[in-house]
Every structure is written in C-alpha cells, then in structure tokens.
Amino acid sequence: MGAGVLIASQLNSWRVNFDLPWLTFGRLRPLHTNAAIFAFVGNMMFAGIYYSTQRLCRCRLASPLLTKIHFFGWQFIIVCAAITLPLGYSRGKEYAELIWPINILVAVIWLVFAANFFWTLAKRNEKSLYVALWFYIATIVTVTMLYVVNHLSLPTSLTHSYPIFGGVQDALVQWWYGHNAVAFFLTTPILGIMYYFVPKAANRPVYSYRLSVIHFWSLVFIYIWAGPHHLLNTALPGWLQTLGMLFSLMLWAPSWGGMLNGLLTLRGAWDKLRTDPVIKFFAAGVTFYGMATFEGPLMSIKSVNALSHYSDWTIGHVHGGTLGWNGFMAAGMFYWLTPRLWNTKLYSQSMANMHFWLGMVGILLYVAAMWVSGITQGLMLNATAEQGTILAYPNFLDTLQAIRPMMWCRVVGGTFYLIGFIMMAFNLWKTARSGSPVNGSIEVESAMEEMVGDTNRFRSYANAPVVYCFLIIASATLMIFGHGASFLAGVFLTATFTIAAFAHFEMSGAKWGQWYDELLKHGLTFTVLTIIAAAIGGAVQIIPTVTMQRADNIEGRLQIPYTPLELTGRDIYVSEGCYNCHSQMIRTMTPDILRYGDYSRLGESIYDHPFQWGSKRTGPDLAREGGKRSDEWHFYHLLNPRDISPGSNMPNYTWLFTKDAKTGTLESKINAMRMLGVPYDIGLSEEEIMAEYNSQAAEIVQRLAEKGAYTEPQKQIVAVIAYLQKLGAFEDKDAPNENTTPLPFEPVTSTQP
Amino acid sequence: MSDPSHNTEQEMLPDGVVLKEHSYDGIQEYDQQLPRWWLLTLYGAIVFSAAYWLVSHYYMSSLTNEQRVEKEMQAINAIRLTNSIDVSNDELFWEMRHNPAFVLAGEKTFQSFCIPCHGANLEGGIGFNLVDSEWVHGAAPPAIYNTIFNGVPEKGMQAWGDMLGQKRITEVVAYILSKNNESAMRKSAASGE
To answer: What residues does the Cytochrome c domain cover (chain B) (predicted)?
Structure first.
C-alpha cells in the first residue's frame, strides 16, 4: 500500500520518480497491483480460509507440512515479485506481470494450497458443506484455470517469455483472466469469509439460505462471461462486446444477493454497530461491495464506457472494491480473529474506531476524487466543438492539468487509509503481545457415519435441475452462434426449457431443495459442477476467438512484423511498463479518431505477443505514433518530456541513453515469435539478425546526428525510437495494389439498410 | 460465547421464514423468500439481455461499431466541407493576418502546440526557425497551411489537420504571417515558384 501512495504522488510530480529506473511509475504500478491482489488479499484470504475451514469441517487441516510449504512458498513469491518487478522483469500483461519461473512457482504453491484444502474437506467430520466452503471451492478451481491459461507462454530465456496468444486473442484471454481475478480472487473468497465471520461476529443466523444458493450459482456462472467489458468499443469482435456488456448487467443482482445476505444478517445486531469496531468494518465493507457491484454494471454499458474507459473513474472503481470491500473485510476479520487467537482482549477499541474513520474518510476522498477526475477528463477528451468537427481540447495536456487537484486529493485519501492500516498493525501487535497463542484442539464427534451408504454419485449429476441447466445453456449457445434455422431452434428451445424448468420446479419445489441438500454432502460432485459452471463462459468466448481470429483469416489490414531492432525496442517498452499509461487502441469513436487517427483494426496488432492495448490513458494513445513525429522529437522527449511537452507528468527515461540494449537472446526471441505464428524467415542466423539490427540502428543514429542529437547504435534509446516509429504500420490485404496511402476515412459501402 | 440459537428461539419468526436446524460451528441459516425487488432485478436483467441480443444481432439491421463510426466520420467531413475556407487564396490569408481576431486566436493555438519545436519566439529548435525568412516548404500562405495541415513526416513535422481542423490552422498561419515582414514574404513566395 505504501507503493500505492508513492505512485500516486508520482502521477502528480514527476520528480518523485527520482530518475531511477527501478522507482518509475511504469515499474512500480505492477508491483502495487500484484502486492494488493496477491500479497495483501492473498494472505488475508488464506488466513480466513484456513481458520474457518477447520471449524466448518470440524477437523484439523489435513497436513501441517503442506500448510508450512504454502505459507513460506507464498511469502517467497512475494519477495521474488518485489525484486523482479522494479528491475523491469515483466510479461507486460496486467496483474500477470511476473516472469515465467515465478509463474510456475505460484502455480505449484497454489496447488499445494488446493491439495491441503480438498484433503481437509475429504476428511471432514461434518456432513454437508456450508456456503462459505462453496465459495472457497469456486475460488480454488477457477483461479487455477484462469491463472494457467493466461500464463501460457513460450520462454526465450530464464527471465523472459512471450505469451502464446497475440493481439485480439491475447486481449480476450487477458481480460477473461483480469476480470475474473477480481471475481474469483477478490470477491468469492471474501464472500466466503463474510459468510463465516459476519454471522459469528454478529451472533445471528444467516439471512437466507435460499439466497445463498441462487446468488452463488448465478455469480459463478455469469461472472466468467463479463471479461470483454474491458474491451468495449475496441477492435474486439462485436458479438463479444455485446456478451460482455449483457453479462455484466446480469451480474448486478447476483452480486447484490451477496450484499443483502451480509447486511441482512446484521439485522438485529445493529446496536453493536455503535460499539463493536468489527461490525463497523463488516457493515461498511459489505456496503462498499454493493456500491462497487452497482458501479461495475453501469460502467459496462457501452455508452457509459465510452466516457469512463481509460480514465480515473476505473481507478476509483477498483479502489472502492479493494480498499472498501477487501480492505475493510480484512480489517474486521483481523480485529475479530486476533483476540481469539491469543485469548485476550483487543488492545485498544478506540484505536480501532479511529482506524475505521480514518479509513472511511480516506476511501471516500479517494473514490470521490477519482469520480470527479475520471468524468472531467473523460468529458474533456470526448468534447468536440464547431458542430462536432474538431476537438474542444486538442491538447491532451490540458485535460491532464484539469485533474491535477483531484490527483492530490487521491494522495491524501490514500495516505489516510495507509495510516489507518499502520494503526491496525500496531494495535494487533499489542494485542498479540498481551496474550498467548491458543491451542485450539477440541474433541469432535464424527457425523459422517450416517452418510455412508447413501452415496450415489450418478444421481447427484443426473438430476432435474442439472439437466435443465444443461439443456438451457446448450440451446442458448445455439442461439448465440446459430444462423437461420439453427438460431430459431435455439431461441425456441431456450424458451421451452426455461418454461418447462419453471413448471417442474413449481410442481416439485420441495424435492429440488432436497436434491440440493444431498448435493452438499458430495464434495466432489459439487466441485465438478462448479468447474463446469465456471468454465462455460470462457469456453464459449475464447475457443472461437482463438481458432478464428488468426492472421491467416484476417481481412483488410494486417500488421507488418517488427524488425529485430524494433522487437528489441518493444521488449524495452514492455519491460518499462509503458502500457500502464499509454494505450495502443484507437476505439470506434469519433473523438478517438479525431485525436489519434483512424480507428484500430483487429489485424493491426495480431502479431503482438503480448498485446499492448492498455487499460488507462494517463498519457495519449500510441497506436498510430509511428511516423507522426521525428526521431529527435522522441529522443528529446524521452530524455526529459517537459522540454517538449510542458506540464507532462511522464518520468525522464535517462537510462535508455546510457544502457545498451540486450541483443544476446534476439535469435531465440525471433524463433519463439516464429513458432507463435509471426512470419519471420525460417533459419535466420544470429549474424543475419544482428546485421539487420545494426544497419537499421545506424540509420537512426545518423538521422539523429544530422539534427545534433548524438547517441550510439547499441543504446536502448535507438531501439525504443525504432519501435515507436513502427507503431501502426500495416499492409492492406484487400486494397488493390495501387500507390495510395490509406485514406483516413474509407468509403462506407454497405451501411444502408 | 452464547449459543446463537438461544437468541432466535425467543423471537417470533414471520410467516414463511424457517430457521434451518443444522448449525455449522454455531452458525445457523434462515431459509426465507427472496426480496421481490431483488428477483425482479435478476429476472429483468436476464430478459432484457436476451431481448437485447436478439434485437441487436438479428432483427434490426443495426450497424456494427465500425460501420457506425465511419458514418459519423462522413457526417463530420460533410460539415467540414460545407464550412471549408478557400485555403488556396493568398489574399484571404493576408486579410486574416491583419485581423486581430485571427492573429490572437492563432497565437493561442501556437503557444499550446507549436512552441516545443518552433520556440516561443518562433526561433526554432527541433523544428525550423519561422522568422528567418527562409521557407523550406514554401513561403506562400497556402504552402504554409499545407505544411501544417498535412505535415512533413519525413522531416518530423506532424500532420495537424485532424487534430486542429481547418479554422484553427488558418489562424495559426495568420499568426505566423504577422510575425514576418509582409513584403519580404510576398517577394520570396513569388520567386519561390
């Protein structure tokens, strides 16, 4: 969190980057996001899961050894991340920046955790699974699936690899992962924790079991589909954008189901809100969850997204979720857990109350500042003048200056929140010191005997609700992909099965309830059904995209592959984390086109491993940067952006001018690219590659020297300039071979109905 | 810790609400009807989504994102054409050069975009000096206009046409002219041909 406050200051004052490579925004922002997700929420969730699972299963953790490996392994991963990310080792995909050896370590440790959890589940002394455990199961299986698919890559050296997906495929897979990291790493485990700790702290029964059932299954099924809402109005195929938007809207009610169950469980315990800091944190945390999950669907509406995307609004949204929901639930859990683990009283109630109010004011300042900032900048960037023919604020920097006060507000808010957490750490440390660790072994009687004999796995699959769900989803898929007759059949069958399921349920509602109670006794069956529910959305979206959207099938514009020098420059661009502030995607919106040039086509980034479409425009879009400005413009701009763009908040990249570009692994990089489908010649030798590299570098150095800007061909700056000047280069496969430059606006041929 | 079921036994449960018997580590669950507004939101969103999908993809000849934005750009170009200024007319530019409205507006635009390369006093830097009576890309006002509008990519001059639009660029030309000697420029424009 300290990293967060630091990078927030960097956005305001470029000096805070200290001209040090390992302290620049582009490198620290990945560290901030990875630490918040995997270190902070990760460790908090492991603690909550281990504590509650043992009690809900009425047995000790299966293996103390696995628990130890898990703990120390995970902390080792965090240390590795804290070292490699500032050094610029990055895969260039958001929340998936860690390099491949660490990826493997994460996967192994995660599987250790999974083994430990399911083993504990298997030897439980409790017949059926409590709702908290459902959410833990969903978390473990889905995160495994997401993490593995999004981290598939082809290593080129011990510290570098290329993702196997490129361009639009990579974009879809990345946001399928990115969005569901939010869903299954930051939401479902915390919901599970809520279902254990809130009723415990409030000493009240859970509001509604039925609601738990419905909102669990709808959440797990629907969440996975919503990823493309991060790619609205981009070159992503339209049907995926529509699916992303619609499933986000459908997600609103299931999310609020969780909020209702949390808040209404507190009903009858509201008097404790005044006295008990734990209840305060839980109530506020669940409320922030409700707020963030209302905001999410709203921002997924295409026209709202046109304003909010790439702006600070998104940043405010995620911080509402992370600080408000995750952070406050964590604080509530810690304040509840620590006195019980050390068999003592909380050191200071008033300090905990102080923490609550500091944190609350901090979040509100932060989120409100980001709303104002995001909406202001979004409106300014999209504003046009003179009947919509020109931009009202053509200078990007004008929109940046407008939000500076808000960016200071965010620093203040974030600092408040950080101080609150430091107070908590002190408070908890004092609490722990005042007591002694509890040995929590208790005798339990096994409730499992009566279960033996009624296990019939087949019956728990082939049951009316499951069969109906399967039929409805299958026919809805037919509706999505079908044309003509098969589409009509899809519509008809979906409607029929839905009505049939409702009718059947109305006639035999009690029996369905019984069936579900039975299901809860079969951990394995439950897990398998959860995997299926969570996998469908990704499969429907990703499989067609990966098989169809390939370079061979692209019509129209196709990217020209990078030369060795440009590829080297691109790897530097990725490693410096430029994508954290610069997008490479001109959306299908007139303000974007007026500002950055013709909208981006799907084929124009098809060879990009990883894709660099970006998610935030702290600086302008770079999709068509190539050839727009001179080499020496980039030269001086990277040396000190404020010489060229007064008021810019971009860091100085002075080390690009002193460090040599790494070319040792260029041959294996190009080979890896060719294996991934980029059309490089087969069997290029290292000499040939380096000859091409050197001749292009020499040309750039000479052009620069003519203008009085001196550098050497092997320096990083030369490669970066080469890359920037290549951005947006394409060949048009459809265009007749005439000697024409592409018009900015192509004639529309078939738009008339 | 007190047993939670102890509390709840004392209160009267409303109709249709059942307290499930089973207790997990002391946690019990009610089983009760879901709030009507919540169900309406859930079903409403599902029905809306299905309808939206059908309508947008099959029953209306709705445009794709690309077709829509191209149409919008054509409309914008149509307005631009209607309001276009005759930028091949030398005299028009000289008239603007003497009109403070144009010169002042041009100065503002120039300060916002041009000084990083051409200097605050037009003395040059990364870009050419604009007050040294040397006009590499032509001294005639329409030539200057063209240089700004279309850029000279191989020399590093950016094309500003889309970003600034015709009117703002004519203003900038007026401003540049105002910083130069009129008769000298007319002369070099004539000899440059």
So the answer is: 101-180
